[in-house]
Write a structure and sequence with these properties.
Order of helices and strands: EHEHEHEHEHEEHEEHEEHEHHHHH
Helix content: 40-55%
Strand order of the largest sheet: 3-2-1-4-5-6-10
Distance between the termini: 41 Å
Structural class: alpha/beta
Strand content: 15-25%
Radius of gyration: 19 Å
Length: 299
């Protein structure tokens, strides 16, 4: 297939590109920069210049494809709600091009949307549009496009990691360095799911090839890693004290990250594995955190 990939030079997208090419697909990768376009061409893909604000150019990219994978997202979490609404508009634009065909649109969301109630294991067969995560906007628009006849499916992300980036844990590290301590809420028993970035990239390929309208996939290798365990490893790597925080202290400490700090976001990928034959093999989250070069992160 000729696949239009948004976010093609991003953390996950740059791992999806070789996955797709190795499987015999053509890739039209969306990028914002000259350097990104050069990287795509050097790696055997075509480049399409666009930003998330340029929905006309995004539509043009989708019009020239047999399938679309949408991974691009504005990760300025200080404007998280606004950026989730921006994602809603991009999904609507992509859907407007694909409507009336069976060309698949694979979008991205978060595993929390599969939690029926706080603290319950998130599942692929649950869609909680009342979840407090503003990323609900992505799945709301995905559902609207599905209802309009677009072949939409969803990959829900946990903390996606390697030894350089780890989802929300990357800003967690920056905050810890700034505050001079690694904090966690209460006893730190709340859990965050995780998966290595290469396993996640494989999942995107398997999902777009299956092209099952309405399917939701949890890109989860580890159902839940306790935040206290994460904090202990970060404390050792950063050479900082590790401290339990009250809810009031946590809000002041974490800032915007406080909306996630105390959430128990454990998630299952049982149905994903059964449907796609996906078997993650990458290192665990704590392994990657232990092998990270913390001095390089500070640079």
């Amino acid at each position: 297939m000729r696949i239009f990939l948004t976010g093609a030079t991003g953390f996950i997208g740059s791992r999806i590109v070789p996955q797709l090419l190795a499987a015999g697909h053509q890739v039209l990768g969306m990028t914002r920069s000259d350097s990104g376009a050069a990287w795509l061409r050097e790696n055997g893909a075509e480049a399409h210049r666009a930003t998330l604000e340029d929905v006309d150019s995004i539509r043009a990219g989708a019009a020239n494809a047999e399938a679309v994978i949408h991974t691009a997202f504005d990760h300025d979490f200080s404007n998280f709600v606004a950026n989730c609404e921006k994602d809603r508009r991009v999904i609507a634009a992509l859907g407007s091009v694909l409507k009336g065909s069976n060309r698949p649109l694979l979008i991205t969301s978060g595993t929390g949307l599969g939690q029926a109630n706080h603290g319950e294991l998130a599942r692929e067969d649950v869609v909680n549009f009342a979840h407090p995560n503003p990323r609900v906007a992505s799945e709301q628009e995905g559902q609207a496009q599905l209802d309009a006849g677009v072949n939409v499916s969803v990959v829900r992300l946990p903390q996606v990691h390697d030894t350089k980036k780890q989802g929300l844990i990357t800003p967690f590290i920056e905050i810890s360095r700034e505050k001079g301590l690694v904090g966690y809420l209460g006893d730190g028993s709340n859990r965050w799911p995780a998966a290595h970035v290469d396993d996640v990239a494989l999942l995107y390929r398997l999902a777009v090839e299956r092209a099952e309208a309405g399917a939701r996939y949890n890109a989860v290798a580890e159902e839940g890693v306790a935040v206290r365990e994460i904090a202990d490893v970060l404390g050792a790597g950063l050479n900082l004290p590790v401290k339990s925080l009250t809810p009031e202290e946590a809000q002041a400490h974490f800032g915007w990250l406080g909306m996630f700090a105390g959430l128990d976001l454990s998630a299952s990928s049982q149905l994903t594995r059964e449907r796609l034959g996906w078997n993650p093999v990458g290192p665990s989250l704590l392994e990657d955190l232990r092998h990270m070069d913390y001095a390089a992160v500070a640079a």
